[in-house]
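Reopening this ticket.

The earlier resolution said the output was attached, but the attachment link was broken on my side. Pasting everything inline this time so it's all in one place.
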Amino acid sequence: MSSDGFATHSRDVNERSIRSRVRHAYIETHLMKLRATGEFDRLLETPRVHFIYLHHVFDDEAQNFRRTLSEVARTHQFVTYSKAVELVYSGKVDRPTVCLSFDDGLKTTLGASRVMDELGISGCFFVCPAIVGETDRAMVKRFAETRLHYPPMDVLSWPDIEDMLARGHEIGSHTYSHPNMGDVSVEQAIDELQLSAEELRKRLGGVKHFAWPTGKWEMFSARAGKAAFDLGYQSCASAIRGCHMPRPRSVGAREVCLRRDHIMGSWPLRQNMYFLARSVLNAAGNDYEWPEAWKSIIQKERHPSEADSGVIASKTGIFAAPGC
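Inline output:
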């Protein structure tokens, strides 16, 4: 930890509790059972699309991060995020396929992107434009405490993001200022989605993909999901564990909520691989779907009378829109 409280090592953010030790013991026990029966290898070799995501890769995590990617590559095909989305929509998956993404726009992901370059892997980095390039450490600390709910870390700058884009990585939207999208009004949710899209399009020329903060059902809503597609995003991703199995038919973008499996560079390699295997073990054919009560709302195309006027109704949250 730095003198002003910024996380600089994995130990600064890793949970150390009885709960985490119990969880670790459960994973190890289940993993041993899967390996003993040969099920573990079979699961990893199952054709599917698997989205993996992280938040940070500190220097002390880089070696294990590289090992994890190399191990995944032994049995999986890495593709770009956009290609993975395309495969999920088509349902045509004939081999284990994986892509990588990062949430929150933290500075350590710049180093992670260079590790990925070495291995020929392209990722998608979901950022919040309100905090990109912020050098006021008090502001970054406030953002971490009120929005991210973990220790503050340095954030990416716009030149960092442009550099990653130039090297073949993708940049996605993680809302404008990382609110709990389940707590805000529909109007505020639309503002967050629109402000982020407008800033990313202005600075980078475009944005295709969206992942909502924290990624749980209770931290999103059907109206927000509909708004994401209405505003032109081509995909919407959660942080709900799972993977996407082959299907006999294609589906439209509004029918799909992408599942992503969280891993960490500091976790043992076998545990990161365990989460991939477990998602396959628990997979069902309809795992791409939204909650039943949300479907009719999200899948309803925007009527021409609802067309975006280009006017943003309100600027809410701890960060105002650029220039406001």
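Reporter confirms the inline version is readable. Confidence is low (pLDDT under 50) at residues 307-324. The two ends are 34 Å apart (CA to CA).
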